[in-house]
Design brief:
By secondary structure, the chain is of the alpha/beta class. It contains five helices and nine strands.
Amino acid sequence: MEMDLHIHTHRYSGCSNVEPASLLRRARQAGLDGIAITEHGIRWSDEDLRELVAQSGVQDLLVLPGQEVGCYTKRGEFQGEFLVFGFFKSLGSSRSLETVLEIVHGEGGVVVAAHPFKKADADGGFYGAGFRVYDYDLDGLEVAHPSYDPECSELAQEAMRKRDIAGLGCSDAHDLESVGICRSVFADPITDMASLCEAIRKRRVAAHCLKGA
C-alpha cells in the first residue's frame, strides 16, 4: 500500500498552493492508495475531512489527518520539524519536542522527523532536526524527500539504521505536481490512523522516491 504522508494545502498552510479537493484527485492519478494532510500546527477535523472526500468525488483513497509541528526549546532554539499522527488536537507551534513526544506518545500516536537532513545553507546546517534525531525517542524519520541529495539520503538512512526506527518517503508537497513523488510503501493494509501508527512503530514500511526515476 502506497501513501504520501506529508502534504500541505492552502486551506491551512499559507506556503501551499494546493486546493484540497484537487489534491485527492491528483493523489489517485499518481497511483497512491492513501495520503495524510499535514498542515503546519493544524489538524483537520474528521468532519472536515469527510466533507472534503465528498466534495472531491474520490471514494477509493484513504485520507488521514496529521500535522507538521515546528519545535523549539524553552530558550527558543530550533529543534526541527516533526510529523505527528494519532493525536487528535491541533498542536500549534513553538512547543518543545520533549513536550510533543510526551503528549503524543501518551495518546498512542507517533512522531516522525520531517526532512531532518534537508540542507539549509552551504555551511552544513539542516532545515530540520539533523543529528538531533539521535537524541530523541522518535518513531521514524523521512529518509526519502525531494530536497535530499545523495549525501542527505545517506545520512538519513544511517540514522534510521542506527536508531532502528521507521524510514518514510514523503513528498512534502506544496503543489499538485509534487504529490506522490516520494512515498511510503507499507507491507500491510492501512485502514485508519491506528493501523498507520502501528505500522510505523513496527517499521513495516519502506521509502520510495520517483524523483530521477
